[in-house]
Design goal:
The structure is a homodimer of 891-residue chains.
Chain A: E1 6-10, E2 13-14, H1 21-36, E3 44-47, H2 49-57, H3 66-81, E4 84-85, E5 91-92, E6 94-100, E7 110-114, H4 120-129, H5 131-148, H6 154-168, H7 178-196, H8 204-218, H9 222-230, E8 239-245, E9 256-261, E10 273-278, H10 282-287, E11 293-294, H11 307-310, H12 312-329, E12 333-340, E13 343-351, H13 356-368, H14 374-379, H15 383-386, E14 393-394, E15 402-405, E16 407-410, E17 413-419, H16 422-430, E18 435-439, H17 447-452, E19 455-458, H18 466-474, E20 477-480, E21 485-488, E22 493-496, E23 501-503, E24 507-511, E25 516-519, E26 524-525, H19 531-543, E27 547-551, H20 555-563, E28 569-573, H21 575-578, H22 584-592, H23 596-620, E29 626-629, H24 643-653, H25 657-667, H26 679-684, H27 686-707, E30 714-717, H28 723-744, E31 751-756, H29 759-763, H30 765-768, E32 774-777, H31 779-787, H32 798-803, H33 820-834, E33 839-842, H34 850-858, E34 863-866, H35 871-882
Parallel strand pairs in A: 4-5, 17-18, 18-19, 19-20, 27-28, 27-34, 28-29, 29-30, 30-31, 31-32, 32-33, 33-34
Antiparallel strand pairs in A: 1-2, 1-3, 3-8, 6-7, 6-8, 9-10, 9-12, 10-11, 12-13, 14-26, 15-25, 16-20, 17-24, 21-22, 22-23, 24-25
Amino acid sequence: MAAKYVYFFGNGQAEGRAEMKNLLGGKGANLAEMTSIGLPVPPGFTITTEVCTEFYKNDRQYPASLKAEVEANLRKVEELMGRKFGDAENPLLVSVRSGARASMPGMMDTILNLGLNDITVQGIIRQANDSRFAYDAYRRFVQMYSDVVMGMDKHALEHLLEQKKEARGVHLDTELTADDWKELVGDFKAKIKETLGQSFPEDPQEQLWGAVGAVFGSWMNQRAITYRKLNSIPADWGTAVNVQSMVFGNMGNDCATGVAFTRDPSTGDNYFYGEYLVNAQGEDVVAGIRTPQPINKANGDSGLPSMEEVMPECYTQLVKIRSILENHYKDMQDIEFTIEKDKLFMLQTRNGKRTARAAVKVAVDMMKEGLIDEKTAVLRVAPSQLDQLLHPSLDPKAPRNVIAKGLPASPGAVSGEVVFTADEAEAAAKLGLKVILVRVETSPEDIHGMHAAQGILTARGGMTSHAAVVARGMGKCCVAGCGDIKVDYANECFATNGGTVLKKGDIITLDGSTGEVMVGEVPTVAPQLTGDFGILMGWVDKFRTLKVRTNADTPHDSKVAREFGAEGIGLCRTEHMFFDADRIAAVREMILSSDVEGRKKALTKILPMQKGDFLGIFREMKDLPVTIRLLDPPLHEFLPHEDKDIEELAKTMGVSVQALKSKVEFLHEFNPMLGHRGCRLGITFPEIYDMQVQAIMEAACELVKNEGFTIVPEIMIPLIATVKELKVLKNNAVAVCEEVIGRYGVKIEYLIGTMIELPRAALTADEIAAEAEFFSFGTNDLTQTTFGLSRDDSGKFLPFYVDSGILEEDPFVSLDQNGVGQLVKMGCEKGRATRAKIKLGICGEHGGDPSSVIFCHKIGLDYVSCSPFRVPIARLAAAHAALGEAVDLTK
Amino acid sequence: MAAKYVYFFGNGQAEGRAEMKNLLGGKGANLAEMTSIGLPVPPGFTITTEVCTEFYKNDRQYPASLKAEVEANLRKVEELMGRKFGDAENPLLVSVRSGARASMPGMMDTILNLGLNDITVQGIIRQANDSRFAYDAYRRFVQMYSDVVMGMDKHALEHLLEQKKEARGVHLDTELTADDWKELVGDFKAKIKETLGQSFPEDPQEQLWGAVGAVFGSWMNQRAITYRKLNSIPADWGTAVNVQSMVFGNMGNDCATGVAFTRDPSTGDNYFYGEYLVNAQGEDVVAGIRTPQPINKANGDSGLPSMEEVMPECYTQLVKIRSILENHYKDMQDIEFTIEKDKLFMLQTRNGKRTARAAVKVAVDMMKEGLIDEKTAVLRVAPSQLDQLLHPSLDPKAPRNVIAKGLPASPGAVSGEVVFTADEAEAAAKLGLKVILVRVETSPEDIHGMHAAQGILTARGGMTSHAAVVARGMGKCCVAGCGDIKVDYANECFATNGGTVLKKGDIITLDGSTGEVMVGEVPTVAPQLTGDFGILMGWVDKFRTLKVRTNADTPHDSKVAREFGAEGIGLCRTEHMFFDADRIAAVREMILSSDVEGRKKALTKILPMQKGDFLGIFREMKDLPVTIRLLDPPLHEFLPHEDKDIEELAKTMGVSVQALKSKVEFLHEFNPMLGHRGCRLGITFPEIYDMQVQAIMEAACELVKNEGFTIVPEIMIPLIATVKELKVLKNNAVAVCEEVIGRYGVKIEYLIGTMIELPRAALTADEIAAEAEFFSFGTNDLTQTTFGLSRDDSGKFLPFYVDSGILEEDPFVSLDQNGVGQLVKMGCEKGRATRAKIKLGICGEHGGDPSSVIFCHKIGLDYVSCSPFRVPIARLAAAHAALGEAVDLTK
């Protein structure tokens, strides 16, 4: 039996359902669903994603049975509409749109008004009784089709349009007449023939298949590939094609088109949020060419009449539909509608993209409204999205030099240098510069620049313009439709109404929550973690089983992390403490000593300072576990390397330049990453680790004795490759611990464990667990050694690897589950085989990456540890993992 | 039932057997065996190695039943000897010696004449009718016992002896009288009491248990630990203690003592080889204090009477015993004997240590004599030993300035700087210097220096002196007993009889096969691989199943390797070819090009030279497989780094210094080992690999087409971490190969495979095998990444790791089977799971290390590949592996 490739929808009946997104794409599935629940949807049909997959598998050939299926479904649409495709009298026009499983705004191409030619346009004129409308629709179709399907440079046709307006002495498209448009259709076709050497197709069937091919073709265009890469969408998902009968929002002033969200996608507030344009096609709203009007007063007073006032009946119907959709989908919806001659049609519904703030608020509100339960609420917020909430906002007390105000399109508070092109933004970001991309409006070609920029400022376009939608998806700060500014690309500057001129390279600050644009850098304050966020995180903590600790080296970081919900410290690095201005001299004295006695003398000076560090950290983490890693980096990191600095230091230290230089040379390493560091220092210079262990234990004993703390210090020995190293160092540490405990006369437990950060440690974890009381997987170094890849040196080829798909993701960002993950899993299993109750955690930066956290949950770690600002993300990811959800739900 | 801790031997009856070496130690087992086969062995008993193990397990306490067992066995010895231990009239004296499972020459301590005190010495005087002998024995006992058991500084007693000789106006010990010795015994005891605060024990029981304790104690002394480490002997094997009734070689001129080998241990020649001393104790022969006499004329004419002449009856008896022992043990024996009043006693037999040359000759001869079969002959030669035979000997045509001649104690031809202490030798070796250790005589304290030196030259001592025995064991060149030289430690020089004076740091050459000492460095020639060596290797190849290839980058190396029996090339590195003076300019031009076109232009210049390389190698390896690795090192290795060199190169290349400097800086890497190298170069600069593949295939096609070769080139892509890298590069390579094949119009197969040298490659070998047609385990890099250990940087701590036992062996020398080996095994299993017939080999330097080769055989590799000079070692190791022998048989 042949596969079914086409699914029909129309007149309250549909072959598809909302659950069939994988097959029909998001748009197709929802058109079917809306049809089924009785919403007014223009009839049409969906060509499945399987066809796309087959298409690419079979060298861009369609399945044999597709043509007949499309024919049959087109007949059904014709019957329902009472029109015929290509008919001279009563022609059916259709739209052809893409619709992938995951929503990909702006990525895919759309053709409207398909079916128009010199004959059918006459039928439209007669039906609409409006030749200007008919020829406007026709010229739009020719423009769109020639661009998207035929590969015509669209500027050539726009140039003809400009010439026409000049010839007519007018400025606006709306001032052109039916005849002007008719002439332009002829001019366009002639130009296309001249440029491409082929005629614009007159046959509606040829038009239809050309458009279908273009939709499938656009699945593999560079923009789509980029978007998929940024959003981790597999290429083999494919896109569906939706062919739907046209309805027109631009057939007169009783027509309109609009987009809306059932709640505010920026704040999550529960009011009907949206924009519309009278006498316009949908593309006019999204493209940001005309500034749209609000659908109601709740959207703020723009000075323009709202839909509620202008079209009260349609508005009332739309409000009902809003309620039906939210009750049906149990989630905030993003809808598109068109009004043709006072009749409302729904063109799309989908789960609305939203900011992190909105995601949290909508989830908490819907739970309170009884629409969803706590679990669903938790699953509604993507862990990666939380990042937006965990970053600073503008300090309300700081002075602001506001020079312009636009729409608060995507929240955040960012500063950076002004740039005017996406390429500049990308180039600057590669140099580590922070930039704000300033554009008249953005288009899909700008995506890489938007990604690279800190924030986006546009002069035109509304809350649902390309810039706004994409920025919210990316979690980027965006101020859109800022009519106060005039962008001058040629001179690389923009001017405000107030007369301020800002050039490329000038610093500005954007506030995406207010729409304010400020000159210079405005200071920021820490995020607020109360309210809805606090409520949601409360539910999160009910469901997760994985503990979340933090990587913190100072009392301040410890405090911040605790506020973010950290349940202890998983990694306290001690080397940063060595760099303090008041102790680096003693550290260097230690390194330059040629014997144990000299080193011990210098270490004696460092001891009280180290002890002070640990006192501070233990106090902040009162009664929570703290894992302290002993010195890890090679000693040469503490010495200068440039001749000038060496000479200076030699003077300060009272040693000869030559002696210092030869020490620096002696300590030089070809591959410091694989050199004399970690526990290898502890083996060759036991006095260093002894001092550190003494400092840890004295701090702990003091707090236990004098302040009644309960502390179980976890002493972590880095870079273990063999159990014998750990045996030697554990013996040394135990001796120091027991001495200190005896001296203080307190009762205190302590654990001695190790990082598992070398492949050999994972491979022999069964042996190592005989000595280690805990393991912490150091997945940064483990990734470096497993891949044979230096993080510091990978910049020259790793981006190319990710761009070209050799690596799906940067393995330093998201744990390579397939390779490095095998070692982590092996380490866990072997460790537990020897010591059933061994404590297992991860302290690489992957501990704050959602998919890595889910992996850690699955293989049964006890905790993850990450930077303070990522603790809530890890908590949420852990809850998702526990709830059995391994996918990012906003995708 | 209590364990049996003591085994008796005497009067033709013994409780032990030769096979009980693990329990009784080598010496004890062979004393028992010799007793059983009717040889004249003084009766005694062996305390088992289990007691040693128990002793260390139980905090240096003996098992409870030991005392009674020793008592009972002592009674049996007393009965057989008709003497009583501690008896005033007819006292039994015993020796107490160690005897471990593996022979450890000079490592363990021995006590002779135990049982003597002021009372029993009177009994000995009466029995021997020689008070001088008795007091000499007594003073020797006091010296030995106080040194070994009581920890007395032996020089203090020697000083008293010197004083006595001075007081008596004599030079030699032999000139002292009985009264002198008697007085000295008193002086010694007084000095001991004065120094140690404890009396010398008079009670023979106390003496006995003190000596037993000292033997066990010496198992853990530093010398023993060092020897075990050098020879990979586990500490828990323990030593046995042999208590045996004394016989005396120093009771007059009808007494003697000697050591002999049943064949020449240096050449393997089949004659009775040995030395003896009249009127001496055994220690006098081994210590090298008196130069011994040959046992027969076959040992050369030393001008001194041989045992054959002086003691013909005993000699005849000894010749019979030689024959009995070889027929019994089927191996060359190392024996010790003593003649007391014309009566021969056997004190020891063991398999004799021998040079590689002797090992080969003895094995081949014994096979021919019908004593052993081919398998046994193959197993008789340790693979690691072969190294000695595979190195150069002195060029017979080169002029030699011979300044002295000593005994040819251990063969080899080496040159180096003269040093006079073991510590100097070790320090110099660490700096990479070649040194010759020159000593009056060596002692166990010198072992580390002997190990570090290229060769050893001693002024005193015979062919069985400490220096000679240890050097042969180590495979070190040694000239011993070179009476032509006078060593002056104080002035750090030695003078020859001819008047030449050589200072520390002067270069000398030793020929261990002739005993010649030459000034300066004498050139060497390649080893001969014919004769017995060829016969043995023929048997070797019958038994082994593992193939042996070579690592060779030039036609010359390929030729040498083929002569050594290589069955193909397992690793042909192409980077060395890039350094040739006539092509480095083109290589640099390629690196400095900023675009593909520039690089391609430069590569076009390199192509014909690369093709020439491969033509030469293919010709040498006619019809054998050749695996060629594409470019591996990072590009910066081909550029200079010093300012001066950069300036010079800039001038030559006609580029600006600044441009060249910034390129060098741009290419700089923090961890080049983990950087932009291997296949990462092939991914980012595909034109480089394309050129190399083209050169390989053009060379192969040319030989197939014009010279009728059968070639299956194996193209190896290095540093693969993910299958996708290999997929991309394989596609590129296949395209180039097909183009070349098409162009030449020949039929030729080729394989594309990869190195497995990163942990991730081993972990995902199942995926990689989908693309790879062969795997070659690059265990050098795999060891670096698995351990996180840079070979170039490990010198600062790795020696300490090995010295302190944290690592048993340097993992770059012998494959870390426990860690890295897991990945190799995993790679094999996963690779074969995907592609059952995948070709598997190893090309790290471990391919020439015997224990690693045996590992490779066990896990089922198809071949190992090693440097040309190690090919025979690998072949022999592979035969041992196939014969099921995983242990080094000379141990």
